[in-house]
Structure formats: C-alpha cells, structure tokens
Write a structure and sequence with these properties.
The complex is a heterodimer. Chain A is an all-alpha fold. Chain A contains eleven helices and two strands. The chains are: A mainly alpha, B alpha/beta.
Chain lengths: 316, 255
C-alpha cells in the first residue's frame, strides 16, 4: 500500500464504490432464459399433476384435459390441413386490421393534436365512439360491410385504432416545445417539422399505443371469429367447444397465446429499436448489493477517515 | 445613447435587426413597451436584466417566433414575418433533438437548406471539430455532458452561416469553469463569421466580456444602452473604463 499526501493508506485499485450497490447480482442471459423456461415448465407440471390425479377440491380438474391430451391433440392438428389455414386466416385478419389502425390512428392522433379544426371536428366523434367495445360493433359491421371477412378486419381495426389514436394525441401534445421552435428557426416548413420533430419525438408514446392496441386486436379478432368467422383460430376453438372437444379448445387457446406473444414481442422489439435514443435508467429493479463475506476486509474510503488525519485548514 | 453603427465597421453578412416602438410579449401578458433598438450588422449586443424582465421575449420576437404586439420588428428594414434560417436561435435549455446524434443535429439545418448529403456531412463535421466535438460526433445528446451539448447547439446554429445569432442565456446552466471556456469558444468561433449577435444573459460580467454594447432591460422597457469601451481587451477585467461601466450597469440593475 502506498501513502497519499494526507498520510492515509491508499487502497489498491478496486471496483468503483457504487458498483456493488447498483450492479445487479442477477443471472446473466442464459440464466434468465433458464429461469423463464423453468417458470413455464412448473406451470405445465402443476397442470399435468392436478389433471392427471383428477383433483376435485373447490376447483374441479377431473373434467380438464391433461397436458398430454392437449399435446396429442396439438400434434394431430399440426399434421392436419385446417390448422395452418386457420393460422394464416387469423394472422391476415389481425395484420390487416392492426396495420390499418396503426397508420390511421397515428395520422388522426397527430391531426387532432396539431389542428384545432381537426380537434373540433373529430374530437367529439372519437370520444363518443371510443367507449363502445369493438366487439359490440359486430352488428354495425354486419350491416355495413358486404362480407364477414371484412367485418372481422373492421372489428380488429376499431379495437386497435382508439388506443393508437389516444396515445399518439397525448404524445404529440407532450412534445418539448423547444424542439419545434429550434427547427422552426432553421426555416423548416410544416412537413419538415412533422417528419423531423413530431413523429420521431412522439414515437415512445405511439409505441405504447401500438402495444395496447395489438393486445385488444387479438381479443377482438378471436371474438369476432367465434361469432361470424369461417376458418381462423377463434372459429376453430369455438367449433371444438360446441362438439365438446376440450383438448381442441386448449390447442386453440395455446395457439392464440403464442401468436399474441410473438406479435407483441415483434412490436416491442421494433419500438425499442426505434427509440434507442431514450435515456435508460441505470437502476435495475430487484438488484441487491452483494453480501460481504465474513472476515473480508472492509472497504475503506480513500478519503481520510478520522479527524486527526485531516489537515486543520480542511476541517469545516 | 450612441448607436454602434458609427463605431463598428459595417459587416458584409451580418443582419441589421431593429425594433421600433415595439410592444413585446404574449397578447394576454405584455412584458415590454416602447422598445427602440437598432442592432448593427456584425455587432455583438448583450442584453442584461433581472429575471422576468422580458429578455427571452425580446429574443423570441427577434427570432420571429413571437410577433410584436405593437410597433415593428425588422431585419434590414424588412418587417419580420416569422422564423427564418437567417436568424439562428440558441436556447438555454437543451434544444438538441435527442434521437439524432450530434452530427445529425448539426446536419439538420443544412438539410433544410437543401445541401447534399456529402456537403452537409463534411460541413457538420468541420463545425463539430471547431467546437471541439470531433470525437463525440456520433454520440446521442444524452451521452455527452451539458457543456458539450451547448457546444453542439452552437455548431448547429452557426453551421448554416446565419446572418444573425440570437442566444438566450446559452451558458446559464453551466458551471463557472465550463462557462468561461464556452465564452472564449464563442468569441473564437464568431470571429470571421460577420454574424450579428444578440446575447441574453443575467451575468453582467459575461455581458461586458462578450458585448460591443450592453442593453439593460427593466421596468417594462429598455432602460439603458451602453457602449463597451474600446479598443477592447476582453481579458482586461480591471481596465478603469470597464470597472466604471460595470459599476454603472450594476447600479442600474439595482444590485
């Protein structure tokens, strides 16, 4: 050890003081993957155990298909022709409705936030239609649109449209005014301001709306398919229910879950990529300071620890 | 009051900015009345005054962001009709677009001017190098320090060669050491641009260091306009004429 100007021992180089406090003592990438897999496996294991043993307490698992039943039904489905048609139909419907809602929702949200005229013209209409659940618009879809297919896309569109619109409107209104003023003083016109400030600045909020909208879209596409579809995961699930094919119903539910998970992950990844400029916090939730091993040397601050070591002119 | 136009050589590129009997502020909250100001081309005018006296309002009016409530604001005798690339504004707060790298921020006004990609890139890089940010050009604003962000703002304002630069307490949020460095950098980068500068500050020392003239704002209008003694040595803080002017300015501000 060397001695510094104040005569205090200087410790050899060590980790910065804050490293122990904020650095997560948390499994790395593979560890986290294993943790997630274990969580799924535990849920499946509990399901198999409860149904395999026909547990009938207050909850009745005796009528419930086992994981093995569902897996068998899944394997049968995967090899059959209808499964992929259903999947393709549902995905086409949700993608058409959702993309339409994303484009129109962002456009209307920006318009309402930026133009008083648009706000006066569209605001009341939006506020009246917004509280109506999209699935309650099935009669409207049947009356207005010539085919069931278009009706389902319409319902899916309506479901995602309002969350996207409202988030965009809020995000545009919350933009830091100085960004726009800076670009205006560069001589930018309206379109340039829209492309260079409004849309990129509102992206974090817009992606919040897209995530919520996608979730609601899935709920509505499946419900609409159950009501009036021909083919589609929702239609097949309802058909299985009416012929008391419960493993089939679960195959449908698992399919919906996985599809929803994949699509929402895609939206989230895209959102993170496009908003990489957002300052991220260095705080990691749940991270704990590492425990000191008994007998390990105490970390001594590099500054003098006692009054005696401090020159008099530095005492305050 | 003496006009600086007879003291300073007329600039080739600097814009002359004038306010004639102007009332400034928002329609529901007027701040300044009867302001007459003539900033000659190439002049550095510093504006000091207590908080809330309308310094920023004056600057925003000259930038064209705020129309005058009365009277006229003009550039080279042409009334201002709105913001223009001729008059760059440097803000106190962080006005860099956070999703663009420092270089992309500096490139933006050049893109608006219609410069080609290669032209604007090389121009942006040379300006960033000039303000000492060559290494940080590809960083996002939140990755660099407050002082570096202000340097990038300065580069962004000066890169498109504006005829006037309006600066709203640009160094107000910086620590004393960074601030002194920024003042010297500003004098250095402005040299040779010929741009007119209106620099708002609450720091009298900064106003005397930078300005050719110092305007004092207070009690709803422009209260005084002083020429900074010349020939000027910016480092001569104890120059008797400068000390006398500092005393006059401070007593006018009531401090």
């Amino acid at each position: 050890m060397t001695r510094n100007a104040h005569g205090a021992d200087r410790l050899p180089p060590r980790r910065p003081r804050h490293a122990g406090r904020f650095a997560p003592r948390y499994p790395r990438r593979y560890g986290r993957f294993a943790l997630r897999l274990a969580s799924l496996a535990t849920a499946l294991g509990a399901w198999q155990l409860l149904t395999g043993l026909d547990v009938d307490l207050w909850l009745r698992f005796s009528q419930f298909p086992t994981v093995a039943d569902v897996a068998r039904a899944f394997a049968d489905r995967l090899t059959g022709p209808d499964y992929w048609t259903d999947l393709g139909d549902s995905l086409t419907r949700i993608l058409s409705g959702f993309l339409l809602a994303a484009v129109l929702g962002v456009a209307t949200g920006v318009l309402v936030a930026r133009s008083r005229l648009a706000e006066d013209l569209l605001g009341p209409l939006v506020e009246v239609i917004r509280p109506i659940p999209a699935i309650a618009l099935v009669p409207v879809a049947i009356l207005l649109l010539p085919s069931d297919e278009q009706g389902i896309v319409f319902i899916t569109f309506t479901a995602a449209f309002f969350p996207v619109l409202v988030s965009t409107r809020h995000a545009v209104r919350a933009l830091t005014p100085v960004w726009e003023e800076a670009v205006r003083t560069m001589g930018a016109g309206r379109l340039r301001i829209l492309g260079s400030v409004v849309l990129p600045g509102a992206l974090p909020g817009i992606f919040g709306g897209l995530s919520v909208g996608l979730g609601v879209s899935w709920i509505c596409v499946i419900s609409a398919e159950m009501i009036s579809g021909q083919y589609g995961v929702g239609y097949r699930t309802w058909q299985d229910y009416t012929i008391v094919n419960y493993p089939g119903v679960f195959v449908g539910m698992v399919t919906i879950g996985v599809l929803g998970w994949i699509t929402s992950t895609a939206v989230e990844i895209l959102g993170r990529r496009l908003t990489r400029w957002l300052p991220r916090t260095s705080y990691v939730p749940g991270a704990r300071a590492p425990r000191r091993k008994p007998g390990a040397p105490t970390a001594v601050p590099a500054a003098p620890a006692t009054e005696k070591e401090v020159p008099h002119d530095q005492l305050v | 009051m003496t006009s600086s136009s007879d003291v300073l050589p007329a600039s080739r590129t600097g814009a002359r900015l004038t306010l004639t009997d102007a009332g400034l502020g928002h329609p529901d909250a007027p701040v300044l009345h009867g302001v007459d100001l003539d900033v000659a081309g190439g002049e550095i005018l510093t504006v000091v005054g207590p908080s809330g006296c309308g310094k920023s309002t004056l600057l925003r009016t000259l930038a064209g962001l705020l129309p005058p409530l009365a009277g006229e604001a003009a550039q080279d005798t042409e009334p201002l009709t709105g913001p223009s690339a001729d008059r760059a504004l440097v803000f106190q707060e962080d006005a860099l677009l956070p999703w663009r790298s420092l270089r992309a921020n500096v490139e933006l006004p050049l893109a608006i001017q219609g410069l080609s990609r290669t032209e604007r890139r090389s121009k942006a890089e040379s300006w960033l190098a000039r303000v000492g940010l060559a290494e940080q050009a590809r960083q996002l604003p939140h990755r660099v320090s407050g002082g570096q962000r202000q340097r990038a703002q300065l580069a962004r304002a000066l890169a498109p060669a504006p005829r006037a630069v309006l600066m709203d307490e640009p160094f107000g949020a910086l620590d004393a050491q960074t601030r002194a460095g920024m003042q010297e950098l500003l004098v250095d980068v402005l040299r040779g641009t010929g741009a007119t500068v209106v620099f708002v500050t609450h720091d009298v020392e900064e106003a005397l260091f930078l300005g050719d003239r110092v305007a004092l704002l207070g009690s709803g209008g422009l209260s005084a306009l002083h020429d900074v003694p010349r020939p000027r040595d910016r480092t001569a803080h104890d120059d008797p004429a400068r000390v006398a002017l500092r005393r006059t300015v401070l007593s006018s501000l009531g401090t």
